[in-house]
Each structure stands twice: as structure tokens, then as C-alpha cells.
Specification:
The structure is a single chain. The mean pLDDT is 86. The longest helix has 38 residues. 79% of the residues lie in helices and 0% in strands. The chain is built from 13 helices and no strands. It has one domain. α7 runs parallel beside α12. It is an all-alpha fold.
């Protein structure tokens, strides 16, 4: 492997850390949105709490999601794989920055998957992508892109339906409670938000870990697909500092523009979102916390008072999620095509 490819590999690792940092802008910041909107914590308190717990989650969260990401594509050789990974992450970072600038809670997961697909096809053809369709049809086995897409779709339904049902249950359980229950709920949110952030950090961070692991394997720096300690610690630090640095714009959108959130709404959203992320992490499936939190708020709002839900903002979010994958695929594919002509 020549020196130019090695430079691209090191650049790819650096961009992976950058992607983890911008991921803090998007998915991690969403974690803090509801606890702030319900006035259970100040923005500063929430962001610091979430950033710390996200970092811890990245360190202790395992590797199942990372391996799923790493197995989505295979280049014809190490050079092709490095180009694919570098291009995919470049496209995802660019999209994260664009949506962050406009305060739109886009999905870093959609962006990364779109980047992998676009770059993989541009460099090594359609056959380089692990689509997983035949495994699903023939053996009902969830692998590859099929696994990722199904979990992303299910997470939308889980958020909407789960939020609706959990709020209805909460109303029944608390029907005779006094207004002072809000103080208890506000204290409960600190625990619920911490657990949710821990799960979120475990799932989100592994996406970048998987990319880095595949890069260093392709260059011969390691002989097995594994997550070195320095990678895990580096990604944990990047996503934590990303939350501290840029989570404010997206937090305002999710926390106040969808529905007027009260303490009970925040607790219910964290319960539903945390459950979805824990299940997906255990199954090794990357999902978007932005998507889960946003849809859970919509479901909770519909259960409380559908007329007060800002459905237009929900439609705007859905539109953004829909265009993310093809948009990033196009960006990453273009970058990959250019780089493949240079190596």
C-alpha cells in the first residue's frame, strides 16, 4: 500500500473523529432537548450531563453495532475500502454541518448509511454492498442494509406508538396525583436522561468505531476486525465534546418546536426512546436517537392534545430524514469517484 493511500487512511480516521464530533451536534444534543424544554434542568446542566453520559456510554457500550457498520461494504482491496470509508464519512460530515447550521435535527445514522452506499457503489459497484435482501427473503435473517433499514423504520413506529401508549398509561397511573408530582418527575428525569444518554452514546459512537476499525484493518495496521482502546476513547471524547460545543441549535428545535413539553412528557419520551436504543444496541443495529426522540414527542403530543402538536414541523423532519440518505449517497459517491481516479 503506497504512501498516498496511507495518508488517506489517516485522514479517514481523523474524519471519523470529526464525524463523532458533529454527531454530538445532532443525535446527542437531541437527548438533552426534552429535559430542558420541560424546565427540569437548565441548558448548561443538561448539556454537561448528557455529554458526560454519552462519553461513558461510548466506552462501555460494546461493539455489536460497530461490526454491523463495518460489514456493510467490502472493497475489492484495502485501497478501495479506505477510499469508500473516507468518502462516506466526508459526505456524512458535510451533511451534518449543513443541517446543524440550519438547526434541523437530521439523522447522522441515515447520513452515514447513505455515504457508505453511495461511496461503495461508486468505487466497487452495487455488488460491494451487503444488501441482505436474499438472507431476509430466504431465511428471514436480518443482516446488512436490510437490517439497518428495517430497524430505522421500526424505530419511527416505536417512537410514535410507544409515546402514545406510554403517555396514556402515565395519565391513568397519575390520575389522582397532585400538582406537586411535577417536582418528583423533574428529579426522576435526571436519572432517566442519564440512562438514555448512556444508551445513546453506546449506539451512536459505535458507528464511527466500526468505520475506523475497517480502515485500520484494510491498511494492515491490525489483523482482525476489532475496536482498539484508543479508538473507543477517542470517539467517546469526540462525541462528548461535540455535544458541549454545538448541541444548542438542534436542542431548541426538538425541545420546543414540536410540542410544549411538560415533565411527564419528558419522562415518557426518555422511557420510550431509551427502550428503543437499548434494544437496537443489543441487536447490533444502528438507529437514530434524533428520530426516536422526535417521533416519541409527536406520539406523546397526539395522546395529550393532537391539536397542539406542530405537525408541520414533524412533516419537515420526516422530509429531511427522507432526503438524507440519497443526498449523502450522492455527495459521498462523487467524492469516492474523484478519489478513486487518484489512487
Amino acid at each position: 500500500m503506497d504512501i498516498f493511500v496511507l495518508i488517506l487512511a489517516y485522514l479517514g480516521v481523523a474524519i471519523a473523529f470529526g464525524l463523532a464530533f458533529t454527531n454530538g451536534f445532532q443525535d446527542a444534543a437531541t437527548t438533552a432537548a426534552t429535559i430542558v424544554a420541560s424546565r427540569s434542568a437548565t441548558p448548561r446542566q443538561a448539556i454537561v450531563l448528557i455529554s458526560v453520559m454519552n462519553g461513558i456510554g461510548a466506552i462501555v457500550g460494546g461493539s455489536a453495532v460497530a461490526f454491523t457498520i463495518a460489514e456493510l461494504v467490502r472493497g475489492s482491496d484495502g485501497t478501495a475500502t479506505v477510499v469508500i470509508m473516507l468518502s462516506a464519512m466526508t459526505g456524512a460530515v458535510a451533511w451534518n454541518l449543513i443541517t446543524w447550521y440550519y438547526g434541523i435535527p437530521s439523522s447522522s445514522t441515515y447520513a452515514l448509511i447513505g455515504g457508505i452506499i453511495g461511496a461503495g457503489i461508486a468505487v466497487a459497484g452495487v455488488g460491494s454492498i451487503s444488501w441482505g435482501t436474499s438472507e431476509f427473503i430466504n431465511a428471514f435473517q436480518l443482516v446488512g442494509v436490510t437490517k439497518v433499514v428495517i430497524f430505522l423504520i421500526v424505530s419511527i413506529l416505536f417512537g410514535l406508538i410507544g409515546g402514545y401508549l406510554v403517555y396514556k398509561l402515565s395519565k391513568i397511573l397519575l390520575r389522582n396525583a397532585k400538582r406537586s408530582i411535577n417536582r418528583t418527575l423533574q428529579r426522576t428525569q435526571w436519572v432517566a436522561a442519564s440512562i438514555f444518554a448512556l444508551a445513546n452514546g453506546a449506539n451512536d459512537s459505535q458507528k464511527q468505531m466500526g468505520m475506523i476499525a475497517l480502515i485500520i484493518l484494510s491498511t494492515g495496521m491490525t489483523t482482525t476486525l476489532d475496536i482498539p482502546v484508543w479508538v473507543r476513547l477517542g470517539v467517546a471524547a469526540a462525541i462528548a465534546f461535540g455535544t458541549l460545543a454545538g448541541g444548542w441549535r438542534v436542542m431548541r428545535t426538538v425541545g420546543s418546536h414540536l410540542f410544549e413539553i411538560k415533565p411527564i412528557h419528558s419522562v415518557d419520551s426518555q422511557i420510550v426512546s431509551g427502550a428503543a436504543i437499548l434494544i437496537s444496541t443489543f441487536e447490533g443495529a444502528p438507529i437514530s436517537s434524533t428520530q426516536v426522540v422526535s417521533t416519541s414527542i409527536l406520539g406523546i403530543g397526539a395522546a395529550d392534545n393532537a391539536k397542539k402538536v406542530r405537525w408541520s414541523k414533524g412533516i419537515e423532519l420526516l422530509s429531511t430524514w427522507t432526503i438524507t440518505l440519497p443526498a449523502v449517497a450522492l455527495i459521498a459517491g462523487t467524492v469516492a469517484f474523484i478519489l478513486s481516479q487518484l489512487v
